[in-house]
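Hi there,

I know you've been waiting on this one. I reran it after we fixed the sequence typo, so this is the corrected version. Both the input and the resulting structure follow.
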Amino acid sequence: MTSRERVLAAFEHCQPDRVPAWCGSSPEFWEKAKRAAGLDDEGLRVRLGDDFRRVYAVYSGPEFALSPGATSRTIFGIERAGLGYGQPMCHPLAKATIAKVHAYP
C-alpha cells in the first residue's frame, strides 16, 4: 500500500496494511535530521515512514504587512510565527465585546 492508499483506507474505516504514521516534530529536529541523513523533506518523510503530507493554499491577496517576527496571518487576523501553522502571536478578539465580534472584518 502507498501512504495515500493507507491513509484513505483508514479514513474510510477499512483496515490498511498498517496504522498510518505521522511524524510530528519540531522544526529544529526536522532540520537536524535532514542534515544528518543527507535528505530533503520528502526523502526524510519516506525514510521515517511518514504517511501524511500537509497541503497549503497559495495566498492571492490583498497584500498586507506582517508584524515583526510573524511568518503568516490567518483569515481571522491571528499572526503566527514559525514553520507550518506556527504558534499564535496574538489573539485579536481576546478581550472583545459582542459588538466588536460582530463588527470584526
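Quick highlight: Strands lie at 72-73, 79-81, 87-88.

Best,
R. S.
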